[in-house]
Amino acid sequence: MNRAFLIPAIVVFVFLFVIPLGQSFYWSLTDFTGYDPELSFIGLANYSTILNDPSMLAGLGFTLMFAVGTMVVVTLVAIPLAVQMNKAFFGKNFVRSLWFFPAVPSMAILGLVWSYILSPLPSGVLNTLLNRWFGVDAVSWLSDDTLARWSVVFVGVWAQAGWHAVLYLAYLQSIPHEYYEVAKIDGASPRQQFFGITLPLLTPAMVISSFLLLTNGLKVFDLPYTLTGGGPGFSTYTITQSIIVSGVSQGRYGLASALAVMFTVAVGVIGFSQLKLTSVISRRFV
Amino acid sequence: MRRTLIVGAAGAAALALTLTACSGSDSGESDGVTTVTLLSWTGEEQMTPVIEDFEASNPDVKIEASYSPPVAEYIQTLQTRVLSGTAPDVFLIAAENKTNLIDAGSVIDLAGEPFMENIAEFNRETYGRDGAEYGLSTSSWAAGYAYNKEMLAEVGYDGIPETWDEFLEMCKKLQDAGHTPFLESVDQMPTTVSAMVGAKTAEMDPSVDDLIFSGESTFEEQWTPIVEEYNRLYTEGIVSSDVVALDGDQVRDEFANERVAIINAGPWIIGAVKEANPELDFTFGQIPGLADGAPYQAGAASPGYAINSASDEAHQEAAKTFLAYLSSPQGVEVMQAQTNDVTVTDDFEPPVDPVFEPMVEPIRSGDLYLPMISWQRSEDILNVEAVAQMQRMIQGQIEPVDVTKAMDAKLATS
Lengths: 286, 414
Fold this sequence. Notes:
The complex is a heterodimer.
Chain A (H helix, E strand, L loop, with lengths): L5 H23 L16 H8 L7 H26 L6 H9 L6 H11 L7 H10 L10 H28 L4 H9 L4 H12 L1 H16 L3 H6 L11 H11 L3 H33 L1
Chain B lengths: L1 H24 L3 E2 L2 E8 L3 H14 L3 E7 L4 H12 L6 E4 L4 H6 L17 H6 L1 E2 L2 E2 L5 E10 H6 L9 H13 L5 E2 L7 H12 L5 H6 L5 H17 L12 H9 L5 E4 L4 H7 L5 E4 L12 E4 L2 E4 L5 H15 L1 H11 L2 E2 L13 H9 L5 H4 L4 H16 L5 H14 L1
Parallel strand pairs in B: 2-3, 8-9
Antiparallel strand pairs in B: 1-2, 4-12, 5-6, 7-9, 7-10, 7-11, 7-13
Helix pairs in contact in B: 2-14, 8-10, 10-18, 11-12, 13-14, 17-18
Family (chain A): Belongs to the binding-protein-dependent transport system permease family.
Pfam families (chain A): BPD_transp_1 (PF00528)
Subcellular location (chain A): Cell membrane
């Protein structure tokens, strides 16, 4: 009887994941253009094109950099932030809201706003401030390959750190105070309390947070697209942008489907590996 | 329980009836009135007066319009509707979907229709193939250089010079006078390159694209000298490589705030610039020609109205009535009042903002070129590659010839 509760989830999973994935796999074996329903079966030709055309995988490097970069930096920022926000201080709720706010607007809007802030022109918002306060010449935030990549990662971290800090905060509040009181009686310093109690008990939250960050990072599209358009050159191009551009803009749905299938499998493997790894780590502490 | 089932069944029946009603509405023909469905990328606010005026003079045809903003969202919406068999009777054929719509046989041939006769040949050919004409395009657009008259006058010029060498010389004088001489957004194909290729191909028969796409020549052979000249802007220190991170709006804002003397631009900046800086004295000029070429401009025929080949005969006939109205002097006047486009029908003279006056004659003559719409296949594939490689060239990572070689390689594999 209890299994009946699984039916809605199974229906959603089948209709919104299994069937579209199956259809994508079917299209990936065809020359489907998105307009003409009459399509030809071309076997693995689309997969061969992807593996032999470097520009199709141009976004792979930056996609991995963004996913891993945001996962690591957000985790490093969000945990101390959550610890601070868990303390009693004046305006605590306001500060929590302030940090959470960047998670409210869409990434596309944030990208547009930050493109003005990080404009490489002397009139860019950040460059103007740096020049006025420190006399620094205009910095090529978005027009230098390396700076552009890190700028996108920075905005990604800025947008997500508060949300993940709130996630950690929820777990922090479930840690019994008695643990800290006992530790204090035993003479543990705040640093020892953090590494001996807080961090180990936050590992379940870290599993969830890092999994969400990694999977969202791997499928990122809207932020780099609106902030840099994938440029300069292909330096901030992402796999998802490649799929959308190939499919929608270029009418190569067969090719885009093949890329999507390969990417889904890769994300599945990476996500599964990450879950296994973090659960092993988690079991050592909890 | 029983009541729940009845309510559920009634709800499902109501939903089914609603859906049935919806699906039938697009082919409705009652009381002698034929309903023509339209997917417009001109906004509802601008399109409503046009539709109202049409329906007032054609009471036997009703237009049922739906709207989708250009460009990507429109292309996606239309593509989905074409594939699902729910495409409207009338929709827009544009640079981005031209090849796919024609290849899939989704649009009917309008050649020989009386309402196509007053349309400029350039516009008819843009959305045609092998003598067939698939889109009613009543206007064109062009981009050239917008310039600050005062800044140019300061260094002794009253307009954009006719040759590229003279233009670069003027830019250096502006630089010496303390101005940023020129900015051009490179998030799309640079206007300068498009215009220079256009000037070259206008003097050739067969055209540059005929040679490249027939395999008789290559981008490396035809485009490299032009890209090399364009790259002088960056190698000679006239323009900062920071332009690779700028979009058209940011360049426009720099111009409106008098932080740059010249930018690449089209008529779409006029309203925003005048609003931001009503005192700014500016106008437009053509893009200078290379040593062996004349000044030219980037541009293309605006998207054309096409008729769905899957619509039945009655709806196609009613759709033609709508297209006939759109190409008539009355229809063009009403539409032009809403969009401010430069129209190209031979029986209506469009009023144009005085600052854009220098560009009107080239537009109406069809002296326009845009690679994205002139290329004969793989348009977006080549465009994405060309833009990315030019950004790398501007950063000094590759040479001009590497840009054109990459385009050839892309064409060969697509």
